[in-house]
Specification:
With about 475 residues, the protein is an all-beta fold. It is built from one helix and 42 strands.
Length: about 475
């Protein structure tokens, strides 16, 4: 008698053949949790606010004033202050995809945001105006406007943005940093150069477009779809542009997420990590997914880092929405997948992870027992294994596991010949289950799935197997 054990459940690994992966590694998962090595149904979502917007919410932002953070949302060309009754605070936008930063102008907290088409905007908690070009104290006019950049970033007090192949930065004048001032020095070699704004022309010989702009490890990093450039220095007189070698570029600014150790981003063939000096692909285990993303919508992919996990929402198949969420735990190095929900924009606020979707609602992620009333369908399936005994036929017998839950689960044992399964009803109190699942073959795999959205926890399954040698 031999035993097929899964001591701890792991994420997806399709990089190598079934013969080489471990029984604890999956070839397919949906809507599960494995943080503790136990297999559990994934958590749900719930509404953050009762109120909804009239169309899909494409951007979530947060404005930090001196009292409480304010969640802002963009939908249908309008900007709203979110709550149980959303309040419209601006309209007339021609693009609903915004980048943003929180800053201070004249000691007042503001939110600065842009979409690459309309003038860069400033929200001070009550009104919205255009960002100026000639300084905060200058008069408003139709020509006194900052560059219509697509992305925004802060770097040593200066505001940075991109337009076409140019990267622009605001001033650091005698009165302090002024994001309303993008004026150029009269004498480029004069002493005032480091107090003025300016621009850096990013090479276009590769034909690529700028796809993102981020402050990473105190450097401005410009992501193109074929290259990545790093701008070194803290003021214009010492700015130096460096092209990172041996790297691919990014295809979605919203996919670029930074923690204290690395930056993660989406490229055409997978997920990459940038450590400050080089770029490395980390998603070999789930390469099959990236062959099936919708290329016409992939620029709208979005990500966030929360609780040691990189969440990346992508459009799978022919979807025109981000209908698949890849979760990468960079502590355990596990990849898992969620479906059944769509994500237009992520927002991390304190200890909550929020997102918007096509419905117009704002949701809390990873909370509750359903997808806003819809069942959570979960499964985990490993690859075929021969248990290290190639020259034998295996006859499966009883499966032992520790389990608990609130309904039925289906456990399948598959060989190269057929699939046999058992339906088991779990109870809330943890106990040992021992269903008999008889099957016969040279290679075996297991699948655990819930029925009708039932909750479950499974620990340390152990399948008894009789071995008949050739």
């Amino acid at each position: 008698m031999a035993k097929l054990n899964i001591d701890t459940f792991k994420g997806i690994n399709t990089f190598t053949s079934d013969a080489l992966i471990k029984p604890s590694e999956a070839v397919d998962v949906r809507n599960i949790q494995i943080e503790d090595g136990e297999l559990k149904r994934g958590k749900g979502i719930s509404k953050k606010f009762v109120g909804k917007l009239p169309s899909k919410t494409e951007t979530l932002m947060v404005y930090y004033n001196t009292v409480t953070p304010t969640i802002l949302a963009v939908a249908g060309g309008k900007l709203y202050k979110m709550g149980d009754i959303p309040v419209e605070i601006a309209s007339g936008f021609t693009n609903n995809k915004f980048d943003y930063v929180n800053f201070q102008i004249a000691s007042k907290p503001v939110l600065i945001f842009n979409n690459g088409v309309d003038p860069i905007k400033v929200y001070d908690g009550s009104t919205v105006r255009d960002l100026k070009n000639d300084g905060y104290e200058s008069a408003v006019s139709s020509t006194n406007k900052a560059p219509k950049g697509k992305y925004l970033e802060l770097h040593y007090g200066r505001l940075w943005t991109t337009k076409d192949s140019m990267v622009f930065f605001s001033t650091s004048n005698g009165d302090g940093f002024d994001p309303d001032d993008w004026t150029m020095p009269i004498d480029p070699d004069g002493i005032e150069t480091n107090q003025h704004g300016g621009f850096i022309d990013i090479p276009t010989h590769d034909g690529g477009k700028i796809k993102g702009l981020h402050n990473i490890f105190d450097d401005i990093v410009v992501f193109k779809d074929r290259n990545i450039f790093k701008i070194l220095g803290t003021y214009p007189g010492e700015y130096e542009m460096k092209r990172l070698f041996s790297t691919n570029g990014a295809i979605s600014d919203k996919s670029i997420c930074v923690n204290e150790n690395a930056a993660y981003f989406l490229e055409n063939d997978g997920i990459y990590i940038y450590n400050g000096s080089s770029v490395e692909k980390i998603s070999f285990a789930i390469d099959y997914l990236f062959k099936n993303l919708n290329p016409s919508y992939i620029e709208n992919a979005c990500g966030v880092i929360h609780n040691n996990t990189y969440y990346l929402a992508v459009p799978y198949g022919d979807s025109l929405a981000n209908n698949l969420i890849i979760e990468y735990n960079f502590v355990t190095k596990d990849f898992t997948i969620k479906d059944g929900i769509t994500v237009e924009s992520f927002l991390k606020l304190d200890n909550e992870l929020l997102f918007s979707d096509v419905s117009g609602y704002v949701f809390k992620y990873d909370i509750g027992d359903s997808y806003d009333g819809s069942l959570i369908n979960s499964y985990w399936e490993n690859g075929f294994v021969d248990m290290g005994i190639k020259d034998a036929v295996k006859r499966t017998d009883r499966l032992y596991f520790i389990g608990s839950g609130d309904g039925d689960i289906k456990i399948s044992v598959t060989t190269e010949n057929q699939t046999k399964f058992k339906i088991i009803t779990l109870v809330e109190q943890e106990k040992v289950y021992r269903p008999k699942i008889s099957n016969k073959g040279r290679i075996i795999k297991l699948r655990f799935e819930n029925i009708n959205g039932s909750d479950f926890t499974i620990k340390k399954p152990e399948l008894n197997v009789e071995v008949d040698y050739d």
